[in-house]
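Changelog entry: the UDP-arabinopyranose mutase record was regenerated in this release. Current contents:
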Amino acid sequence: MAATAPSPSSSVKPVPLLKDELDIVIPTIRNLDFLEMWRPFFEQYHLIIVQDGDPSKTIKVPEGFDYELYNRNDINRILGPKASCISFKDSACRCFGYMVSKKKYIYTIDDDCFVAKDPSGKDINALEQHIKNLLSPSTPHFFNTLYDPYREGADFVRGYPFSLREGVPTAVSHGLWLNIPDYDAPTQLVKPHERNTRYVDAVLTIPKGTLFPMCGMNLAFDRELIGPAMYFGLMGDGQPIGRYDDMWAGWCMKVICDHLGLGVKTGLPYIWHSKASNPFVNLKKEYKGIFWQEDIIPFFQSATLPKECTSVQKCYIELSKQVKEKLGPIDPYFVKLADAMLTWIEAWDELNTPSDAISSKKANGALPAAAK
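Regenerated structure tokens:
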């Protein structure tokens, strides 16, 4: 189905879901005029804005939004020496917002993402769909051919084991994009005019044991279930690689979700990705990653965690050791990254409740009611 370009949003405010339990995290280097389009959907939520680049620059936020803004000076003040684990001059800095949030859920969006329309011409409330995804279980152990069985009008198909129909808690909801696709630089260069106009009305659980390239521009997650694993790595200024921040987090997160019995969904909701980044700049950031990913992905595909890893933090610390041992010989960057992963966990625990409360026992506890 074809989708149309966005137009100014309606002034009718929807009834907000999880209003006091969710923070919206936005990394930016510019004034946040894009929030005007999102006002009907975001205005009643709390925003955490992470300003990248020059901390002396003033970022303007439209009136009427409830927000807190952190720049590099704030990050250094709050984390001290541990601020070294937060990337500079890269959207990976957004994960600082995950760390300082005190809410159960996080939605993160880029400042070049606008409200999309569904095929009927209706504005898509991306945040509402993410919340529905997170509040209904996932089915990573057996694929349902009608996709998400918990959506309105769907169910488990004939032959689906009744013992698996309860599902598992959903930790991550990965949304998609209309207009500018999330391509790597080589694909951008050979398909400069390609645009995504296909709206696929589906939500799928990513099967256990399957990795995927997570995109951070339209992403929601349960911070209590998986937050400490959502570290976007060391990217940008002073690092040999960029544009792999969200994918690194996704690979780490998926291995840990599989181990702890948590689910990851992808598909709806769509946003309208308005601006294509420069493919030549992107190639400079990505070129080492393009080579390294041929080793990185097999590493994550074969990574296993011992049964003693019963919390997200314990899993992440173990994974950092394996990164240093198995990826370190490829390039010294991975030794530095593994150390930063440990620093991230230390900083997370300093600012948050000790991790052992976030255990596999909790993850496998009572499921929330399915959202329709």
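Residues 355-372 have pLDDT under 50 and may be disordered.
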